[in-house]
Design a protein that fits this description.
The protein has about 425 residues and is α+β, with helices and mostly antiparallel strands. Helices cover about 65% and strands about 10% of the residues. It has a 5-stranded mixed sheet, with helices on one face. Helix 4 packs antiparallel against helix 5 and helix 10 runs antiparallel to helix 11. It is elongated. The two termini are about 85 Å apart.
């Protein structure tokens, strides 16, 4: 009988070790268990009253009155919000139930069966240590009531209430452990869902940036380069024609159209520039990168006369610098690092040097395994633009990464120097 009793008190929510005042949402299972507890209590009261009337006991009227009183106190507590919102109110309600049950136990031996649902109420409405103590007192009262109505003391008189109390404690503790585990799993699932959403957003942002870079590179390598070549061919044709040739005005008009479209293509490329390059030059972006880098001290220096670079060049140099510094932070264990951007007449060079523990470059030639930000990715960016990528390092001697990109001829002819940041 004790094993079948549901471990959820009336009006209580999910079981916890704290008082039942904790406001938690009732699940369908806990609602069913609560209804089962109501039915168990009312059934036991009906059994005690029915047996007293059926056996024509001398105190049958008192037994029925005691059962009605107990049911009234129980129903009042179930419907009272204060019982479920205040540990003190819950304790007062339990005291009232105990007093009415003690009266029933004095006049009827059948009253001891009410002890079983009382175990669960006490364990849920009181803190664990007080609940266990109340269960022990209730078991002792049940044993005393049985002995008062029976002339012979049997082992069952002691074992029944004690085993019932032990089963109730074990059932409630097990249910509470399952509930806590369920809550931990729910929190873990919510955390995983949030993490997955953040990861998806990060991947989407990375994909957008990669697509912007790809489009900028494609526009530069196809449309912009094609228009620049057309302009050079038209200039050569203009020089080859004699002065006053009828085709000269048309060639001049074609050159002007090609120049306008080349400028528009370059505007498209700049519009697709990474966010780090949107608000300044490459040198300014590298300086901000060094200032915001965690871990080792990173210094930026600029050499030569700065000039505006083609967007694919700026993007490649910025990404290489970001990748190299990421490797410094994650792997080099360096105390300081330095980035140097050098502008020369026909090329631009980026050097990243750190004082970390270094490594064997030949062992990393096949890839770094860090998701595309390793040495092969940096080398690929440089070689795509016809540049030279070199790595100098040895265990215990730090690392030096150098990238040299030759500037295209048409860019040298149509760019002006810019001020250093």
């Amino acid at each position: 009988m004790t094993a079948a009793a549901p471990p959820v008190p009336p009006g209580a929510c999910a079981p916890t070790a704290a008082p039942a005042a904790t406001a938690l949402t009732l699940t369908p299972v806990s609602k069913v268990l609560k209804l089962c507890l109501h039915a168990l209590l009312l059934g036991l009261l009906a059994l005690a009253a029915g047996r007293a009337v059926a056996d024509s006991a001398p105190r049958a009227g008192w037994v029925v009155a005691a059962c009605v009183l107990f049911a009234a106190v129980y129903a009042a507590g179930v419907r009272a919000p204060a019982v479920h919102g205040s540990p003190r109110a819950g304790a007062v309600w339990l005291a009232g139930l105990g007093a009415s049950w003690a009266g029933l136990l004095l006049i009827s031996p059948d009253g001891l069966w009410i002890a079983f649902p009382l175990y669960f109420l006490e364990l849920h409405l009181l803190r664990l240590r007080w609940g266990v103590a109340a269960v022990a007192v209730t078991a002792c009262a049940a044993i005393g009531g049985f002995l008062a109505h029976s002339s012979a003391a049997t082992p069952g008189a002691f074992l029944g209430p004690l085993l019932g109390g032990a089963v109730a404690v074990a059932t409630v503790l097990g249910y509470q452990a399952l509930y806590r585990e369920s809550e931990r799993r729910r929190e873990l699932i919510e955390e995983l869902i949030t993490t997955r959403a953040d990861l998806a957003a990060a991947e989407r942002g990375a994909g957008i940036l990669a697509e912007r870079e790809r489009l900028a590179r494609e526009i530069h390598d196809t449309l912009a380069q094609g228009l620049s070549s057309i302009q050079l061919l038209l200039r050569a044709a203009e020089r080859a024609l004699p002065e006053g040739a009828p085709a000269l005005p048309h060639i001049a008009q074609a050159r002007e159209a090609a120049q306008d479209n080349l400028a528009e293509a370059r505007r498209f490329v700049r519009a697709l520039t990474p966010p780090d390059l949107e608000h300044g030059s490459l040198a300014a972006a590298l300086e901000r990168l060094c200032a915001g880098m965690p871990g080792p001290r990173v210094r930026f220096s600029l050499s030569g006369r700065p000039r505006v670079l083609p967007t694919p060049y700026e993007v490649a140099l910025l990404r290489i610098a970001q990748s190299a510094l990421a490797n410094v932070v994650r792997h080099a264990r360096a105390g300081r690092a330095e980035i140097t951007l050098t502008f020369m007449d026909a090329s631009v060079t980026l050097d990243i040097v750190d004082d970390g523990h270094g490594f064997d470059p030949s062992s990393a030639a096949s890839g770094s395994g860090d998701g595309g930000f390793g040495l092969p990715a940096m080398r690929s960016r440089a070689e795509t633009l016809g540049g030279l990528f070199t790595v100098e390092s040895a265990p215990g001697q730090g690392t030096a990464v150098a990238v040299t990109l030759p500037l295209p001829l048409e860019h040298l002819e149509h760019t002006d120097p810019v001020e250093a940041p």
